[in-house]
């Protein structure tokens, strides 16, 4: 390819499993999840597995080469490169990012992106206690700001980011609870969601306390599940006459931490504000859009606090004004944006390797009906 020139990339098929409580489906292991999601995506695309030239497979918990085991005896043994991806909560998104790059760079015309996770019940814990934790420097920032409590690490990190937001901008616990209340309500429309129960705001606020203002109904659960997408080049789309179903990925960015994550003694920065902001800025620039053009947003609501903070990072409102956005109802149907119509991680579930993939699938399915929305944004 000519230097600087990139191929257009299209989603031509998607598939996913229902997200379930870990162990809820008897004899349902990760190869079964991969088979279900992968076969659905191939059927949706209308292409056989033999058309797939490479596969990028994401998962967090499992031995090396689970991607090969998931595909070999579920979809096919064709000798293609299978790349395993492990990138924590962005694992599924990273698999899709890599698959897209393969097509953008002209290295393949049809690539499968697959993400799955088979999880344990309860809060996430470290698996390797004999080596440095990848989160040790992040935890140092939090401890310097607020200390360490007798609670799981993840809700402390994001809960303390929420505390900082309340201290700086006057945000109230009710604002975070309203986000969870909204997401649970949205989940009632999603048959793939782990939970489909609607709660009152009082029930959200009065559910079991997990950390500080964060209650159980404001925290995502662990989950089992899988998602898959078939990506193709423009040449492949035209050759196979798939124009009527192909959805172009017009912009996708991946950003990692900046010095500000660790140097500004801020839990908001520590949980990823600056990299989310930079990723959104780059996406909008690449797409030729601005935040006000967006109708639908799927973002990472591992905890209600992160959803609120991410509103500002994505430019959906001014810094410090997320609470006002919530109060206006500008995050749900009838408001300026519809944010996490899937129910978000809080209701839909959070199988780490599948989560980022599933969000892309939902928006891809919506974008097939362009009259429904001007633009969709994922974080």
TrEMBL record:
Residues covered by the Thiolase C-terminal domain: 274-358
Q: Mind telling me which residue stretches traverse the membrane in this protein? A: none
In what residue span(s) does the Thiolase N-terminal domain sit? 9-234
Pfam families in alphabetical order = Thiolase_C_1, Thiolase_N
Localization terms from the record = Peroxisome
Answer whether the UniProt record assigns the keyword RNA-binding to this protein.
no
Give the source's domain of life in one word: Eukaryota
Alphabetical UniProt keywords: Lipid transport, Lipid-binding, Peroxisome, Transferase, Transit peptide, Transport
Q: What is its main location?
A: other
InterPro entries noted in UniProt: Thiolase, Thiolase-like, Thiolase_acyl_enz_int_AS, Thiolase_C_2, Thiolase_CS, Thiolase_N
Q: Is the keyword Oxidoreductase in the record? A: no
What's the EC number here? 2.3.1.176
Q: What NCBIfam families would the database entry show?
A: PRK08256.1
Q: What is this protein called?
A: propanoyl-CoA C-acyltransferase
Q: Which organism is it from?
A: Characodon lateralis
